[in-house]
Structure formats: C-alpha cells, structure tokens
Amino acid sequence: MMSMASCKRELLTPIPQTSVSDASSFSTSSRVTGQLLSLYQTMKSGQFYGGRYVIDGDIRGEDFLNQTSNLITGSDVWALNPTNSATAVANLWPQIYATINNCNIFLDGMASTGSAVVGPTLAANYIGEAKFIRALSYYSLLQFYARPYADGNGSKLGVPLRLTGIKGTGQSDIVRSSVADVYTQIIKDLNEAEPGLPLTYGAGSSSNVTRAHRNTAIALKTRVYLSMQKYAEVVTEANKIVSATAPFTATTGVPHALQANIANVFSTYTTTESIFSMPMTNTAGDYPGTQNQIGYYYSPSAGNGGVGNGEYALNDAGIVADAGWLPTDARRTNFIIKSGSGSSTRYWLTKYKTGGNFTDWVPVIRYAEVLLNLAEAKTRTTNAVDPQAVALLNAVRNRSDASTTFTVASFATATDLINAILKERRIEFLGEGLRNNDLMRLLQTIPAKGTAPAKTASDVGYIWPIPASELALNKLAVDN
C-alpha cells in the first residue's frame, strides 16, 4: 500500500498488467492494486469518460451549435441522426464494455485468489471500487442506447448484461436485458459497494476525487434514482451526505461542500466539491487523445481567445440567452466569452482552459449535482414548494450570483420550482455532459437548434442505434 500514496498511483496511471499471466496476476498485493487502478484507466479513455461520453451528452441537447460539420467530431450526434456505424455509436459501446469486462475479470480474480492475498478490508475496498465502475459504466450505456426508464417503467430493451469476465472467443451471443433489469443491477452494485468503500482516503488526498469512496457511491445513486424517477429513494440517499440546513455539507466521510468560487472547481480539481473526476496528466497515454478532448470541442481557437478548435459554439438561443442568467454571474464571467467578428461572432464555453494535451480533469460527479438532485426530488415527493428545496437551489445559485435569492413566495406551484431547478442544472453543468440525461429521464423533446430539427420521445433518433459491430458479433442482439 505504500506505493498507492505516490502521485502516479493517485492519478491512476499504472501500466495495466497485461504481461502478467492469469495465474499470477492476483498473486501479490501490488499486482492486485495495479489491476484495480487499471480499471479507472480504461474508464478515462478519451472514447469514454475522458471525453466523448461527456461531449455527446451535451451536444445532443440544445445549448451548442456545430461549427465544422465534421462527422469525426460528432456533427451527426449533434444533428440526432447517427447510424449504426457512426464514429460515436461505434466507439463508445466497445470502450464501455471493455471497462465492464475488465471489472468482471477483476471481480472474478478477487473471488478466486485476490481477496485472500490483500485481506478482507482491502478486498472489500477494491471490490467496491470495481462494482462502482461497473455500475457507472452500465448507467452510461443506458443513457444513449436504451429507452428511458420512464418509457414503460423500464420494460423496454436495455443492453446486454454481462457479469462475468470474457477472456476468449465464443461468448458474444447474449440477449439485451430489460432497462429495469440493468438498473436493478446498477443499484445492486452500488448498494454492495457502499459499505466496503472507505469513508475517505485521507484528508487532502487526491484519491478522494480520483477513486470511489463511500460518498461517491451514494452520490451516484442519487443520479441513478433520479433517472428512474424514484424520487423518494433520491431523498433517502442524498440525506446521507447532505445536511438538513445551509450551509449544506456532507456530515460523514469526505467533507463535501460547495466551493465559494465556482472557478476553483475547474482549476484546483481536488476540492471537496469534486466527488469524482477523471484526472489527466501530460504523460503519454494519460490524456484524452486527438479529437476526444472536451476543451478541443468547446473552446475557440487561440486567435479567438481560446485553446481549442472551436467545434461547438454556444447556441445564441439556448441557455446563454436566458434573462435570468445575469451577466454578473460567476459562471458567465469565468466560463463564457464572446469572440469573432461580424456574422462569425459566437459565444464560447471556456470551462476547460488547458490546451496542448488538454489535461483539464473531467468532472463526473460534483456536490452541486447532489444538492440539485435532492432539491428536485424533495419538490416532486412533496408536490409543494418545499423550503429545503428552495434553500438547496439558493445554495447553488448564490455562490455564483449573490444578487439572486429565491424564497418560497418566488414560486406559485411545485412545477414552477421544478422548472427553476431544471434551468439551474442547465446553467451549472453546461459542458459537463448531463443535459442528455435530463432530457431522457423526463422523456422531454430534444429541442431544435440551428439546422437540426427537434426530436420527440417517439421519433427515430431519440436514442442511438446499436453498433453494427455488436449486431454482427452478437446474433441474439436486436437493434433499436
């Protein structure tokens, strides 16, 4: 365990133990640790949570406009018409399943020898981390390749549910489980992971952001239950890590709290607001790679005040045009610029500011999301303008816009408060990949933007097709 305190281990950049035989890959504590940390490395690939998954989650929505018409960088994802062989569709699926399979192989190895090698406490910790990663991976698949849970209460086709490791050929054929069955497995993994995960990796440790701990599993459960519209369960989980009154903080485990300045979250990376992030460094192979980097997509070129390629500008008619998002809001002054000339003048998102290898850490879960998840769930479960929900909304708004304070009297109905919370999510998490999740879970129409038409929940293109490669290899799979 001494090696895990080093910078490289905390940034999750081990060399996967591919040269170690199956018979010995779990034979020593250091090898088990290396196998565990390599799971994070697979997940933070630029094809998954290191870039493309987050980008696709935003550009499917209405707040960005495509500037380059480049299929490689997702113009078809933006236009809501990708095919079975489209770059995004074809690349995200196998990368997520590679992550899942690595988790399954690791869990199989822990069951056979690994747990005995590292002892019960570390075994519970490591197994919990693997189950957390598997849960997040399956949740991510559902957001693009399956109908939302709200459509038929999870009865529609989900994705193939693989729970044992595949090390050879001949194991491709498997039916798609129902959406409900996949969500059931996600929650099972998170519930089993929670008690085994550590409360903290130590005060100030970057592992509190880069590895799963107990609050990480709880926070993800609030997201998952929100997507299932199981609002009472959201409240139950969020109450574990959100105090009853402001200032809202986690009273157990890592002491999560909002940062006073939103800019700190995207420069320091390891504040207590960041519950889970994908760390990046300049080490070869430890950054997203060409045309996968979030900053490359959203930031304008250097000549226009940015560090990227200007693939996606902000939609002038999107959330950036909302009158309630004031010019003095810190999320505007820190993260939005307007550049260009004449008809080419555009608003751009500069939340990710590091060029070159684009080593900005990718946010996966922030404490601000947990607060807004709880606010929405409390409002929906009480069907009233809930005072705590208003206070939670204020906590997120006030830290960036001290001039706006909501009261119970600000909202005539519970629906008005819910709409305010949903709007706050669009502002707060702009460019963090959550917009698609919110549209899907509520079966909302994806609004038109630019030349891309709107898509209702019943339209072709509302969800992605299954990749052609999967349909060719898996004879039991059917397309959407």
Comma- or semicolon-separated keywords:
480 residues, two-stranded antiparallel sheet, 18 helices, 6% strand
Architecture overview:
The protein is 42% helix and 6% strand. Helix 2 (29-43) packs parallel to helix 6, helix 9 (214-227) packs antiparallel against helix 10 and helix 9 (214-227) packs across helix 14. It has helices at residues 7-10, 29-43, 52-59, 75-78, 87-118, 120-145, 179-196, 207-210, 214-227, 231-238, 262-265, 294-298, 330-335, 367-382, 387-398, 414-428, 435-441, 468-473, and strands spanning 64-66, 157-160, 176-178, 274-278, 312-314, 336-339, 346-349, 362-366. It has 18 helices and eight strands. It is mainly alpha-helical and 480 residues long. Strand 6 and strand 7 form a beta hairpin. The strands form four sheets. A two-stranded antiparallel ribbon has the order 1-5. The protein has a two-stranded antiparallel sheet with strand order 2-3.
